[in-house]
Design brief:
Elements lengths: L4 H11 L13 E5 L8 H7 L3 E4 L8 E2 L1 H8 L15 E5 L3 H4 L10 H4 L1 H4 L1 E2 L10 H6 L7 E2 L3 H9 L1 H4 L4 H4 L3 E2 L1 H6 L5 H10 L1 H7 L2 H15 L3 H15 L4 H10 L7 H6 L3 H4 L12 H16 L6 H15 L6 H4 L4 H15 L9 H25 L5 H30 L4 H4 L8 E6 L4 H13 L3 E8 L6 H4 L10 E2 L10 E2 L7 H10 L2 E3 L14 E6 L2 H8 L4 H20 L4 E5 L5 E2 L6 E2 L6 E4 L4 E3 L9 E4 L2 E7 L6 E2 L7 E2 L5 H4 E8 L8 E9 L2 E8 L5 E6 L12 E2 L4 E5 L9 E7 L5 E8 L5
Helix pairs in contact: 12-13, 12-16, 15-16, 19-20, 20-22, 22-23, 22-24, 23-24, 23-30, 26-30
Length: about 775
Amino acid sequence: MPRTLLESLIQKLRGCNVHGDAEESPVAILWTDPRSEWKPLLPLLRQQLPELLCLGDYDPDHQQGPALWLRCIVDRSLPAAVAAAGQIPVIYLPGISRQELRAGEGCPWALEPLIELMFRGSLWLQRNGRDWTLAAFLSSSDALDLDLAGDQGTKAALSRALAEVASVPLDELRGKRLEAKDFDDYLVPDAIRDLLQWMADPPAFQQRCSQEQWAVLCSTWKKDLKFDPAKDGELSAAERLTKGKGGWDKVWQRFAENPTAFPGIPELLRRVEPEQMGLAVGGQDLSRWPSHNAACEAQVLAGLQALAGKSHAEACRCVRELEAQHGERRGWIWAQLGFSPMAKLLEPLGLLAHRTDQPLVGSTPAEFIEPYTADGWEADLSAWRALAMASTAQEDVVRKVVAALLCPWLDDTASRFQKAVASTGLPSPQDQGAITADPGEVLLFADGLRYDVARQLQKELEVMGITGTLSTRWAGLPTVTATAKPAITPLIGEIQGQALPEDFAPTFNSGKATSAAELRKALTAQGYTVLGDDELNIPSGPEARGWLEVGDLDHRGHQLQNDLPKVIHDEIDRLALRIQKLLDAGWRSVKVVTDHGWLFCPDGLPIAELPKHLTASKWARCAAIKGDSQVPVPTAAWSWNPSEQFATPSGAACFNTGGSYSYAHGGISLQECLTPVLVVSGGASSAPAVAITEISWKGLRCNLEVSGGTAGMTADLRREAAGGPSVATTAKPVDDGGARLLVEDDELEGVAVVAVLLSPDGRVIAQRRTVVGGGA
């Protein structure tokens, strides 16, 4: 979240990257400012918004020029390029309003080259189409949502203090009514802050500082810090800042509180390297020298690159030592500024090295559960977290380090687990019992939700105030969707397995396939409501039970392979938001289940040989055996018929199917077999027990019959979804158990709509689909 006005402004500008319904991104973002109110922020914006272009006199060093030059830059017809490669250019137009730019033939000739960009680009405007003024940006709920007085004196004071207010933490501005005095106070010299701002960019600071302010500041600095800017200069200030003597430690602490507010200081400190200044560094706090931090970053990179060829134990030891030496640097200000990426990567890599130093052991499958659910899962988590954190420049070395630490541990642990399974077996789905939903509960099937990912989902939900319990269950074997998904439904008693098919799918007792569509039909027959991923899914009553299939993790794993870690957090966020919506819609709880886990190791899991002629079908981690063939790999019992055997590779290996797998499942390992069951609650359980019991049409008039509910309810007809636009002439109150609604637009006849009931506060509390005019 943005911490300052400046950060929020940059976020809003960069977020204006849509262009109607067009599939392509806009070529530029046009920022009109008729009164040039935002102009004082240009020096700061040029440092933190490198894609910024500005209309004005030709000054390519500051990415400023006339309209024709700006147009050529956007169209890439000039060799000059926007400083931030890959970013959509933001074109700031001081003194220009949206009306002036849209005036067509009346547009000033100097602006005419920009008119065409309005159609290929996006205008940064308020929701009502007006230009963003300072006052609007501070007070609008679409921006900072601050309590700003509306008088002209306050607006003038805000304009005067804009450069100072831009870097003030937003928390200091919230919770009070902002008036002229509040902004004028920021013009009263804050000696330490102003010193840091001067150090960050002396010419720019003095240019915006009045003679009176500058005189007061110089006097204060001489008195409190024994520092004369005219005599000593900024290099002397930088040297004193790193030493922290004579009151300068307070200056450093102020810098450390919010280093992003003073973007020029890191470069200033680099100009006073200890060696260049002839300074003795003994006894000094080296954390204040960016050059020392940079040298440490190089040491970490070299240490990680040197792992090649080392044994697994030695690699684990080396990474743990690097973490012990450099972990503290994550608390230095250089990490906040993004100058310590290797130190940050050492956090998950260090945990990975710690967890993979020893394999998990057990003589029975049950004995593996406790060590894995206690902390063993953190090896899998830290592996994909490290890869998700790595930048493009770091990806190659991080992949190699993760593979060196993770792969031997995966292989050894899987081999030990397979021995335990071969000795005692895993409980069948029937032995474990069917998973069912309690009244008021949704069974949410999340495809491929591995245990470590479920732990992160649980953590994300707790942040949202949604708490629950996490337990485990054994997946069906082999751990592929066709076998394992039916095993985590309430339908176990209706499913059987006979001869092992090539796709590993059991059938219903009736002989029908256990496809996704047939599973949903059978669930509906058992009284479950099959929910849609993009609907509100309000429960029909307190006894309702739901089934919902959400999540794309398994599909993305097969599709992305090495790049899977980059999208795992997005999948977690999607699941968390969907669960929150279900609870807010009135479901009492959500039980999250999955079919199987998976193995992941960058740059490929080991390869196991299995001749094709011995198999009826061969997947990455399992194979159906052809006839009575004898295979040179282990075999295991199919969960739906233990007399049927399938082939499985040893350890963490994948069969030679013609490709390399970083992501795979279907075999026997803790990661694939031990699945999570997460039950959460905490939503709005007080939703009124209300339902639309019947809908009838007479022409374009809709009659609703309603049961239950509270006083003050209204009814409406919505286009496409419950949250869509209304198609009724007006919403009507629910009276005497019903409501009558009229659709005036006869072109809507035959169009699918959603009848909704609304609580007095406007919340949808019941819904039912219908067709305008009646009919299917």
